[in-house]
Design goal:
This protein is an alpha/beta fold. It is built from nine helices and eleven strands. The chain has two domains: 164 residues, 3-Layer(aba) Sandwich (Rossmann fold); 68 residues, no CATH class. α4 packs across α5 and α5 packs parallel to α6.
Length: 252
């Protein structure tokens, strides 16, 4: 088994007293198994080559894909063993930003954001409108509220997807390649927006990416996956100084 390189963590402004999420010996078409904890209020970046299982990993967290073995604990509850009703309650604590943004192209921007709020029986139309407008303001899209997704650029669609995910105020955010397909300037804007979401909402996040600049901007901590194992763990600056040439190559 490949030896994991463990590095001393720099001080992070997170709450270490409670884990938001913990993976224990997760196996799903990996050569090894993966275990790690996500601290409350932390941005954890998962790096790895294409096909290393990064996206599969976070889909297992919300049980879009079932694991072969292991435990996934969300605020102490084992997701793998939850019945449908309790699983749905737990899923509502988790926001998932897909690579595509998962927008409804037949709905306007306003309708896309209203949609997840419609099953909230205690919200009036005025409440819903206020929440939609506030969410769009947070991502700098107030002026496109009545446009269709097809009228938006790739970066704007990504921001809209984030606004729709965050409108329900999830405790945990899962980002699947949030900057894929975007130009460098827009990628940096999205990365900074992820950081703003963390600071404003104290959200705990896992960010799956191969974009090193995104990792540098957003990460409190980084884990690198190689051949189904966590090959290294640390901050960006620590991994940049790694003695392992393969690890260091990611950051140089």
């Amino acid at each position: 088994m490949e030896q994991k390189e463990t590095l001393v963590m720099e001080q992070m402004e997170i709450d270490p007293e409670k884990n938001a999420l913990e993976l224990k010996n997760i196996k799903k078409s990996f050569n090894g198994d993966i275990s790690f904890k996500l601290n409350k209020g932390e941005n954890l970046v998962v790096l790895g080559k294409s096909g290393s299982g990064k996206s599969v990993l976070i889909k297992c967290i919300v049980r879009l894909i079932e694991t072969d073995s292991g435990e996934i604990l969300v605020f102490g509850k084992n997701v793998s063993s939850l019945e449908a009703e309790e699983l749905n309650i737990t899923r509502k604590k988790i926001g998932f930003l897909f690579q595509s943004g998962a927008l409804y192209d037949s709905m306007s921007v306003r309708e896309n954001l209203e949609f997840p709020l419609r099953d909230k029986k205690n919200l009036s139309e005025n409440d819903i409108t206020a929440m939609v407008e506030a969410s769009l303001s947070d991502v700098g899209l107030s002026d496109v509220i009545d446009k269709m997704p097809s009228e938006l650029s790739g970066g704007m669609r990504k921001r809209l997807g984030l606004a729709r995910t965050m409108i329900l105020k999830p405790d945990i955010m899962l980002y699947d390649e949030p900057t894929t397909g975007l130009d460098p300037i827009t990628s940096k804007e999205i990365s900074k927006l992820i950081l703003e979401v963390q600071k404003k909402n104290r959200t705990s996040s896992i960010i799956i990416t191969h974009d090193v600049e995104c990792a540098k901007i957003t990460a409190n901590r980084i884990i690198v996956i190689k051949d189904g194992l966590i090959a290294a763990e640390g901050t960006f600056s620590e991994l940049l100084k790694s003695e392992d040439e393969w690890i260091r190559s990611f950051f140089e």
